[in-house]
Automatic annotation (TrEMBL):
Residues 12-369 form the Porin domain. This is Porin. The keyword Nucleotide-binding does not apply. Transmembrane segments: none annotated. Pfam families: Porin_4. Keywords: Signal. It comes from Pseudobowmanella zhangzhouensis. Residues 1-22 form the signal peptide.
Amino acid sequence: MRKHVTTLVGSCLVVIAASATADDNLRISGFASLVGGTTLDGDGYWARLPDAAGQYATGWDFQTESRVGLQGIYTIDKKLSLTGQLMIRGVNDFEPQMEWLYATYRVTPDASVTAGRIRLPVYHYSDYMDVGIAYPWLRVPSDAYSLALTNIHGVSFNYNLDWDVGTTSFKFYTGQQHTDPNKLITAIEQYKTEQLYDDSGKYRGVRDIRTTKDYEDLKGIVVDTQIDWFNVRLSYLTGKEKFTYYAEGAGSTPLFGGAWADTRFIDVSVSADYGSIFAIAEYNDYDNIYSSWFTSLVYRTGNWSPYVFYSDFKGVLRFIAPGGVTASFEDGVTGSLDDKYHSIGIGVRYNLNPRTAIKAEITDFTDEGDAAVFIDKDRDGNSDATAFAVSLDIAF
């Protein structure tokens, strides 16, 4: 049923877009990214993006990260507007899905209230992490963008303050979300503990499990300050979450989980955009789950923007023994970390025109934890990889 509903909504939005010129109150825009990648070394590479996108096992793959977005904003009057964003993702077999749908009421020129299905604004690039043309890299450095929740049903209050030498925007929001299944966490658990092998030891896939993640009483604040070429952004989120794990064939009986726990997520970014140089560093901490960060330097010269980045992820669980799942499990207090890895990437962006860019990127991924991040054919818990990807990003 939900597939039919999302398809119907998508079709309606396309019809609306076709007739947009007939209504001055309706503004239609969009973006698209055609992304292709392959693994140069290792059993496979996974960027661990939302919906479990970014998986590259064998050969070239042009589906897993490719996407199209279509956004419509209808201005009802001078104060009230309605926004919807439809996403078509390769990882979801190009099935149209309405990801944003919210109303905005402008209280004053500097203050507004938004209500509906909105983006969870925890990261520096949260609002446009799908819009490839909006940033220099082929993808946002995914080691530091690993939260398994991107959108919520909620309300936000937004206020912009102009204080002569700079501007500061404030966002206060609250909301909730239920994900069943949570595709990213499900895939993470499958590769960590549920990889399958035949009698000869040959890898043959992962076990069919399901995880869910519920989020309630989410309350957050974002403070974003811009002073000339310098920017600092602070994000703080609290709430409750419930994780549940269902084994293959278990139906509605969970194997473990199902209890509510308090949660907290903090993100800090600092960036400088000065002349031909763009530099950024971003750090986040997910209480009792992980911490991650990345830093990057970009040099712009004409239409070219070569770049380099380093990203790092460190989990807190200490369950899987060194050598992977086949080496059994270890004490959760004194054991070594399950999830610990980092990436080094170099790439280049070339602007064909102000709305179109092509990019190429090589990523060297190092797995330092005991649990496999992706395909682990030799079952030693090590999933080091080197990957290469190209993209065509457009805005329209």
